[in-house]
Amino acid sequence: MSDPAVSPFANERALKRLRRRRAADRRFKWYGRLAIGFALAALTLLLASITTQAMSAATYHVVSFDLDLDKETFGGLKTDDPPPVDKVYGLVRADLLAQFPETARNPVLRHELSALVTRLAVLPVAREIVRNPREIGMTRQVQLPLSDDLDLYLKGANARHLTVPIGRVGAEETNGVLTLTGEGAFKRLIAAASLEGMQIQDARSTGSILMTAGQSTLKLSTLDPSRIKGPLLTGSLQDFRTHPVRARLITSPESERTVTDRQIAWLLALKAEGRVSRVPHWSLLTHTDSTQPELAGTLAAIVGSLLTLLVTASLAIPIGILASIYLEEFAPRNRVTGLIEVNINNLAAVPSIVFGLLGAAVFLGAFGLPRSAPVVGGLVLALLILPVVIIASRAALKAVPQSIRDAALAVGASRMQTVFHHVMPLAAPGMLTGAILGMARALGETAPLLLIGMVAFVAEVPNGPTDEATALPVLIYSWATQAERAWEPMTGAVILILLVFLIAMNGVVVFLRRKFERRW
Amino acid sequence: MSDHIVSAFTEELERLSADILRMGGIVEEMIVDSCRAVLHNDLELAADVIERDPQVDRMEAEVERQIVSLIARRQPMAHDLRSVFAALKVSGELERIGDLSKNIGKRALNLDAAVFPAMRSGVARMAGPVSRQLHQVLNAYASGNAAEAKAVWETDDEIDQHYNALFREMLTYMIEDPRSISDGAHMLFMAKNLERIGDHCTNIAEFVFFQITGENLVQQDRPKL
Amino acid sequence: MDDTLGNGTTMEKGVLPDAPETSVRMSCRNINVFYGEKQAIYDVSLQIADRSVTALIGPSGCGKSTFLRCLNRMNDTIEGCRVEGEIMMEGKDINSPVIDPVLLRSRVGMVFQKPNPFPKSIYENIAYGPRIHGLAQGREDMDEIVEKSLRRAGLWEEVKDRLNLAGTSLSGGQQQRLCIARAIAVRPEVILMDEPCSALDPIATARIEELIDDLRKRYCIIIVTHSMQQAARVSQRTAFFHLGALVEVGDTDQIFTSPRDRRTEDYITGRFG
Fold first, then answer.
1. Chains that touch B (3 or more CB pairs under 8 A)
2. Is the CB of C182 less than 8 angstroms away from the CB of A411?
3. Which chains have 3+ CB pairs within 8 A of A?
4. How far apart are CA A215 and CA C55, in angstroms?
5. Are C264 and B78 inside 8 Å of each other by CB?
6. A81 - beta bridge partners?
7. Is the pLDDT of residue C4 over 80?
8. Cα separation of B195 and B164, whole Å?
9. Which residues of A touch C79 (CB under 8 A)?
């Protein structure tokens, strides 16, 4: 009966059709792979760019000081006194001035020098002294963060510089101007400078060359293959005679930099002395916000976010779950519930900033709740994620098979017993997933918080939901809009912190699913 | 009755009833031919009837095989169940009728050629109504006519009366002429066989009636003439 | 006529099959069921005998399951479903507002098409019903109820060592017997079974059928089944539904050997359509 000529296995047309179908299958698979590849590439790019941006904020430079907390100055402090910031800073300044005597009679230089460490950097130390007065009368070693511009300079982020080793040369001084001599010692330096396009004669527009030896630095003003001249910025002639010399080429002109040549010289001196070290930037997590990038931290924002989420969770989860149970299990299916359903779905699509306007008008305006407070932020975010929670919970309830309800009803359980004894436990992982995803969304929301004033600069960790507070995404927003270069890696770091929180929440979701998911 | 959704089921049931009817046809002919052999002292015909019996036995075995297979594979219900049950019983009855006809044939071979022709025609006369009864009940089976089956069932007494009359007639012959006792005894057995065939036809009528109506013909309801 | 087993639509023919010597447990009169505008059951009157198995058969969508769900008011849970008519049990109409469906369902248990044990332990599956109805005083009492129910469902020997295992870990047939045990545990008088074997293999089906035959001594059982052979095997009385109407009801022997209605005949011999 089956003629081999028309058998589908040998029919040319059938085979051709088959080949076309297989080709279509393969094409589709490749489209899918491309789509996934694109998504993965975008994600990797995003993470990589944020991480590289944040990496330089993972560590920062600190300068160590030995502070002599003498009884005369600090005696008689009580625990509720304001921290003696100025007194401690005075010690720091005195230490620096003593280290660099060339600044003694020059207020401009003194100002430049004290900018190495900002005044507020001593605040934690001052607080510690108030809290722990037993240290008074002792010498205490403290490490204070370097000012952000100098930190960035050391990280090579705000002024390109390169070092050329010179070796030992002859040195002599006349009226503060040093002359270094060595037969052909500076040929390499000339080559390097011209390679960088630097004209020494016109230092203003082409950057600076600093010669360092030991803790001393001179600024180069004339450059010959065998002879260098320039004023001493800090240190002494002796160092040039006893230490090998290195040249430091800073390609951008001093006027375009936030660090002066002199500051660099001091920094190099401190570094040569071993007082500058690069340490992990823990203060990013333990400090509150600050106007100084090197002092700023995210603690207040993290606490603010947590308080906000606490308010959000305690409102949105019970309300959302109860609403979804009522709608799914008890409400009759009629026009009213249909309308409610449509509106809940619509509400989920309303832009978040609208919720912010609503919060500002109702909670701040009509109810007179405090501005910038986590309680208001929590309320607004609860409203924002309520539809998400309801929709997710309803989906979880819908996924519970009818047979379980039938089974419970058939042994004489009431509807409420059916729901709470049998349906809820099965839907719980799904409901929790919805709730946590909603919370994750709330954690990442910025716009509504801006409108209710949670963008305020908060230097204190909020103690409760009614205190002034800010939140992580808002902190990202405010740091990202700052002008100073140092904020850039800081912003990246906050973004990473926020991402860690989000990933942790999603991890909880996965864990809950794994743990409680049941088959039926 | 409309066909089954599974058409093979209908075909099997149809084949079963066709086989029963074919078997019935053969058996009916055996009755007539055996009595014809007695009437005309046709020994060849008698031997032929005897030879037909194994064929009937084989057909019965075949019908039984079909029925067992049908029950196992189709699980017949209601009317189907009754037809299968009736076919099983009817084929058994037909086989018995075949045996009895064969017995008449055997006895025909042993008859004295000079036996009274009147005795021979007495048996032959009885064969007519008996074979007609079988014919009628097979018709009822083929057409699914419950009334016809019931009619056969009700007329069994006629056969009995016929038998009683023949019995007395034979006795008379044997008293008149003791030489005819041997043949007469054979003749009496033939008459008895025919009477038994009538009973089997009645049984068949009962099964056919049950197949068609689902009800049993109850013995007490039978008209006593 | 309420205390005898009438024979539905075939009564007028005047041939009553021998009524079982048992009494009537439930008596339904002129039941009509509507889903919204659509009528699913037309004027069904049926008497259900105690301590026997009544099978409801009929083609898909004939309303037999809907009718079954009227008997423990499971139709209440379906939106837009309306039941008219009178279902008498112990002299009370179960549809009257004074009867609480929750109490009714503890008297009229139900077993479903797909085995649906709770995703909890075997013990909890059985204990749940007695617990919410307050049938057990203390732990020992509950243990006894669980054991007795499992024994009656013929499952005790198979599961007695693993009562803490999930009910869903049992095989399909065991799960269905677990569901039967769960129904028994609340001491019902009537057990409704909605195609209890349709998801099971023949061996598991045979076990359930054996169990049904055993349970018949204590309970009134009503079973909906698609398998006519099953109805023939397990039931004493059979009711044939077609297009929402009760076509014929009678002793199972009679229905399967000589049904009175042509539609019944056509259905059970496989001639429908």
1. C
2. yes
3. C
4. 105
5. yes
6. none
7. no
8. 10
9. 332-333
pLDDT tens track for A68-78: 888 877 777 77
For residue C271, the chain B residues in CB contact (below 8 A) are: 1-5
In chain C, which residues have their Cβ closer than 8 Å to the Cβ of B82?
257-258
Question: Which residue of A332, A408, A412 is in closest CB contact with C106?
Answer: A412
pLDDT confidence bin for A520, thresholds 50/70/90: very low
The answer to whether residue B77 neighbours chain C at the CB level (below 8 Å) is: yes
What letter would DSSP give residue A102?
G
Q: Which of C229, C264, C269 sits opposite B4 (nearest CB)?
A: C269
Size of interface A-C (CB pairs under 8 A): 71
pLDDT at residue A351 tops 60: yes
Q: Which domains does chain A have, with CATH numbers?
A: 58-148 (no CATH), 153-281 (no CATH), 299-516 (1.10.3720.10)
Per residue in A433-488, pLDDT tens?
889 889 999 998 888 998 888 877 877 888 888 888 889 999 999 998 888 888 88
Mean pLDDT (chain A) is 87
Q: Which two tokens stand for residue B93?
A: 């009855």
Rg over alpha carbons for chain B, rounded to the nearest Å, is: 19
Query: The tokens of C51 are what?
Result: 């301590």
Q: Which residues of A touch C112 (CB under 8 A)?
A: 403, 406-407, 410
Complex ipTM, two decimals? 0.87
Spatial CA neighbour of C69 closest among C33, C98, C42: C33
CB within 8 Å: A520 and C182: no
Q: Which of C256, C264, C266 sits opposite B2 (nearest CB)?
A: C266
Per-residue pLDDT of A306-341, as tens digits, reads 999 999 999 999 999 999 999 998 888 889 988 998
Alpha carbon distance A151, A278 (integer Å): 9
Contact status, residue A157 vs residue A56, Cβ threshold 8 Å: yes
What the block records as the tokens of C67 is 């009718």
Q: Give the strands of the sheet with C81-89, arranged side by side.
A: C38-49, C24-35, C81-89, C92-93
Mention every residue, 6+ apart, whose C-beta is less than 8 A from residue A30: none
Chains A and B touch (3+ CB pairs under 8 A): no
- Interface test mutation site (partner A, options C71, C94, C128, C191, max chain A beta carbons within 10 A): C128
Distance between CA atoms of residues A168 and A461, nearest Å: 54
Q: What confidence tens digit (pLDDT) does each residue in B110-147 have?
A: 887 777 788 888 888 899 899 999 999 999 999 999 99
The Cα–Cα gap between A303 and A295 comes to 18
